[in-house]
Amino acid sequence: MEERIVRFISALRAGGVRVSLAESADAMLAIDQMGIKNRDAFRLCLKSTLIKNASDMPIFDELFPLFFGTSTIPPFLNISNDLTPDEARSIAEALRQFKEQLRDMLERLLKGDQLQPGELDQLSEMIGLNQTNDFRLQELMAQRMEKALKFREVQEAIQELMDLLAEMGINRERIDQMTKLMRANQQSLREQIRQYTSNRIAENMSESRPEEGLNGLFERPFNALSDKDLDRLRKEVQRLASSLRTRIALRQKKAKSGQLDAKATIRANLKHGSVPIDIRHKDRTLKPRLIIFCDISTSMRPCSELMLSLIYSMQDQINKTHAFAFIDHLEFITPDLNNKDIRGAVATVLRRMPPGHYNTDLGLSLENFFDQFLDKLDNRSTLIVVGDGRNNYNDPRLDIFGNLSHRSRRTVWLNPEPPTLWGSGDSDMLRYAPYCDSILQVSNLAELTTAVDRLLS
After folding, report:
1. Do 172 and 271 fall within a single domain?
2. What are phi and psi of 381, to 5 degrees?
3. Is the pLDDT of residue 36 over 90?
4. Which of 3, 29, 253, 383 has the most CB atoms less than 10 A away?
5. C-alpha pair distances (Å), 105 with each of 98, 155, 195
6. Which residues, in sequence order, are CB contacts of 294 under 8 Å at separation 6+?
7. pTM for this prediction
8. Is residue 91 one of the residues assigned to a domain?
9. Cα 127–130–133 angle (5° rounding)?
């Protein structure tokens, strides 16, 4: 318990609460006097000795259950032990009709097998939970783990499995019993995932320093950034943009001339009897024209915000930029971003389009662009989509996206999710991918900066 308390104090410090060594000692002394059997008294001891300011109380209240929670995982029930030989054969035959991952999950729910530590650690690495030290992201991380395990598809597969068993002659009462037990096991998996994410975030916070260096923040996934981290990165965007601007300007200066200009060469050499002594080339235009679609839903907000800030801080290296933001519909935001302080301008856009109960609908947003702004896209434009490709099971409008890709000079997709999650759950990324010239993973600011450098090369 003493080690747990020390980790809790470290997490408070990482969350911005100032706790001195003397106050830590006072907390230990108070717990020695009061004991730990009474949870309310234990909590009060820690709060009264470690918290000095009222503004720090919400952080304490959020962290305390992560370190000293009492939630338990409901028991897993093994249905397969109660099956008759005929039922076991019917289930085995029905399971063969499902794809491997769904079949494995259905068998897990039938046997009541919980996730093993190695499986949880692998999922944690896949979704970026290992680098997450913000307790406010606990539910988001749990939902990402459920998406990776195809929880939504599994729910539908349970019903499909029961329909197959009914066709094979299994008793309806027995089917209802199995359905209830399998759904109970799935709920137990949910609780196990939430307990794991809670413990992992608590552990990450206890190992974090109160002020991580900027290099560490550049490498931290967007979905693991706290509000304080994001504010620090906002201040760094201008410096990064200045560095990129210098690099790109030098690259343009050193670039070779464009292709041979035959007409200009002939005119320049009339005085030499049309002998091509002075060779003329066309100017090489390196500055691109950009059309940017930015998903500013909750999960994509930090990535899109920093992308817009970078691009609009470098307009002297870009011919023209037309920027659009979308959640459930598309909005043209270029007028908001021109001739203004870029940080304030981006903040204005985000306030006008707050996240809420509505779901991301890229398909409808593409339709909005096709109907209202198609004239802004031509064969000189680079089409950029900043998003995770998750469309909440809405129509992705691949026909429109294919048309836009065909009309543009090139199509680039910036996605913060790893390729292992593409196509899972409501992700349409694998369906959009064939229409893209390149797809770049941008899970943190370092990768986003590299992607912008490549776009403007």
Report:
1. no
2. -95, 145
3. no
4. 383
5. 10, 10, 20
6. 300, 304, 307, 308, 323, 324, 325, 326, 386, 387
7. 0.54
8. yes
9. 110
